[in-house]
């Protein structure tokens, strides 16, 4: 294979990876509106987290058992990584984010959580001892500044020690989600995206069975109830919103994200993932008529510029 052919092949793989992670990011952003609707109806965050993890695990287990039963086996050298991926990368990212937004404005919590790419790049630089260009840091800084403008963090700013700690914990957990996912997808014994996501949801389900104490019996609150979309939209059955959250807001985007890590690195995927708050704002603008201010539009442009600069400097 010539250098030119190899470069073209790498470019195609990168394009595929970015398309996958961006598509998954759109589904994650859409899911934010759905989750908000369910939470506003009175469903506790812990119950919702349990439902999301367990429902996704059951669906993925059935698919893997039918299509690729050999992937149900866990090698002795990977069960610890799979457990860490599920408990920390999947469940703790969500749980700590919920803790953060209960104690501080959502915008500030999101800005802190989406510093995750910085921790991923720091791992690449000091953990793997790989060179990182200075323009990558400039791009990441621009993206964080842009996100701060999109979230308008200066409105209702409050400092809560536990909330800040939880938000940074969510950032570290999100970074591990990408790092561990990349290791499992691109290591010496790569695991397919479907079974990796399944075992991740299995680990998250196990976490929710232990901490907090069992509360699956509260699932009955989904039956016969309805909620307005994001608190202002049309009334929709809770079971329908929950089904969307599990399938289109969990199974689909998680599998897309893990598939993407077979084509791009954790650092690349996490940087592209920084567009999620921006995409969520655009969705709210279109669906819920939440008009973006000129400052937010400028912030969105800065986010895209920062992501582009960081990506081009990889």
List keywords for this structure.
two-stranded antiparallel sheet, 2 strands
Describe this structure in words.
By secondary structure, the chain is mainly alpha-helical. The protein has one domain. It is 73% helix and 2% strand. It has twelve helices and two strands. The protein has a two-stranded antiparallel ribbon with strand order 1-2. Helix 1 packs antiparallel against helix 9, helix 5 crosses helix 7 and helix 5 runs antiparallel to helix 10. The longest helix has 38 residues. The chain is globular, with a radius of gyration of 19 Å. The mean pLDDT is 81.
Question: N-to-C terminal Cα separation, in Å?
Answer: 23 Å
- What is the domain tally? 1
Largest sheet: 2 strands, antiparallel
Classify the beta-strand content into a percent band.
Answer: under 5%
Number of strands: 2
Shape descriptor: globular
- Total helices: the number is 12
Enumerate the spans where pLDDT stays under 50 for 5 or more consecutive residues. Answer: none
What would you call the structural class? Answer: mainly alpha
Q: Secondary-structure element order, as H and E?
A: HHHHHHHHEEHHHH
Topology of helices and strands:
Layout: H1 3-40, H2 45-67, H3 79-103, H4 106-113, H5 116-127, H6 134-151, H7 161-186, H8 193-210, E1 226-228, E2 235-237, H9 238-260, H10 266-273, H11 276-287, H12 294-312
Antiparallel strand pairs: 1-2
Helix pairs in contact: 1-9, 1-10, 1-11, 2-3, 2-8, 2-9, 3-4, 3-7, 3-8, 4-6, 4-7, 5-7, 5-10, 6-12, 7-10, 8-9
